[in-house]
Specification:
287 residues; Aminopeptidase; alpha+beta; 13 helices; seven-stranded mixed sheet; single chain; globular; 7 strands
C-alpha cells in the first residue's frame, strides 16, 4: 500500500488496507486508471512489459484478449478496415495464420502489393521479392486472415535490430533498403515494426490484432518496442488509439507527409484501453 502511494501519490491517494484486501479477494477491483498505475508499478519493479504474463505462449495470450475490447481499441477506419457484411460470420470462424505456411503465398503477396501501391502512392517502391523474402524469414510475422479459404485481411510486421529500427523509425532509412542482416533473431532484443495492414471488416481486423498483441505479450522478453511509419490518415489515427507517439515526420510531396510513430513495449501495453482489453475479459461481452 505504502509502496503504491509513494510510486504515484495522485493515483493512490486515500488507498487503505481494506480496499487492497478486497482487490486481492476479487470482491472489488481497482478503477481502470489505478489498474494502469499498478501495472506501471510492477513494470518498474520487475522489468517485464506485462508482469505475471511474461511466460504465456501466444495461444494462451490470445485467450485472455477481449475481441470486443480489441475492436474498440482499433476504432473506426474507412480505408484500412472495410465494412464487408459479417452478420453470419463469427470471429471464431476466421482463421489467422503465418503467410510463410501458405501454399498461396504468391497470390497473397500480390494482394498486398496492390494495397501497398494504393495506400502509399508507390512511395515505398517495394517489390514482390521484398515481401516474399521478408515473409519467409522466421524473425518476421506475416499474418493472413481467411474465412473458408477466402482472403479477409493481413497484418505484416518486421522484427528489426535496434540500430536498424532507429534509422527506419526516424525516417533516415527506406524500407526497400532492408536486408536479411537487419532482422533480429529471437535470441536477441529487437523491435516490432508494422509494414502492412488491411481487413475486410472489423472482425477480421480484431482477430489479426489479437494475434499481434498475443505475439508481443508472449515474446515480451525480447521485444523492446513497436513502431510504424505511414502517410494514411486512418493509420495515423489508429496509431494514436494504440498508444503510439509521433516521433518523426517528413514531407514526401505537396500535401503528402509520412509520419512515424513509436513506443516502448511497456508503455505500449500500459494504456487504459489495452489494460481493459486484457485484464477485464471476464466483463467482456464476447460475440
Amino acid at each position: 500500500m505504502h509502496d503504491l502511494y509513494s510510486y504515484d501519490i495522485e493515483s493512490f491517494e486515500g488507498l487503505d488496507s481494506v480496499t487492497i484486501s478486497k482487490w486481492e479477494r476479487s470482491i472489488t477491483q481497482p478503477k481502470l486508471s489505478r489498474q494502469v498505475g499498478i501495472l506501471k508499478y510492477f513494470q518498474e519493479r520487475t522489468g517485464a512489459a506485462l508482469p505475471c504474463w511474461d511466460n504465456y505462449t501466444t495461444e494462451e495470450a490470445e485467450e485472455m484478449i477481449c475481441k470486443v475490447g480489441m475492436k474498440n481499441l482499433l476504432g473506426k477506419s474507412k480505408e484500412l478496415v472495410l465494412n464487408f457484411p459479417s452478420a453470419m460470420i463469427g470471429a471464431d470462424d476466421l482463421n489467422v495464420y503465418q503467410l510463410r505456411n501458405s501454399e498461396t503465398i504468391d497470390k497473397l503477396i500480390d494482394i498486398n502489393m496492390g494495397l501497398d501501391r494504393d495506400f502509399n502512392h508507390d512511395y515505398t517502391q517495394l517489390q514482390t521479392a521484398h515481401f516474399k523474402a521478408w515473409a519467409l524469414n522466421s524473425s518476421n510475422s506475416f499474418y493472413v486472415c481467411e474465412y473458408k479459404d477466402q482472403f479477409f485481411g493481413l497484418l505484416f510486421t518486421l522484427r528489426l535490430k535496434p540500430v536498424i529500427f532507429e534509422k527506419i523509425i526516424n525516417l533516415e532509412m527506406d524500407e526497400k533498403e532492408l536486408t536479411a542482416d537487419d532482422f533480429a533473431s529471437f535470441d536477441k532484443m529487437g523491435y516490432n515494426y508494422m509494414i502492412s495492414f488491411f481487413a475486410m471488416n472489423d472482425k477480421a481486423a480484431s482477430m489479426l490484432f489479437i494475434r499481434y498483441y498475443a505475439h508481443l505479450i508472449a515474446n515480451q522478453k525480447v521485444i523492446a518496442g513497436v513502431g510504424v511509419a505511414t502517410m494514411m490518415d486512418d493509420a495515423k489515427k489508429m496509431s494514436g488509439n494504440m498508444n503510439l507517439s509521433l516521433c518523426a515526420s517528413k514531407e514526401i510531396s505537396e500535401g503528402l507527409t509520412i509520419q512515424a510513430y513509436r513506443e516502448t513495449l511497456p508503455s505500449f501495453l500500459a494504456s487504459e484501453k489495452v489494460v481493459k482489453m486484457i485484464l477485464s475479459k471476464q466483463e467482456c461481452p464476447e460475440e
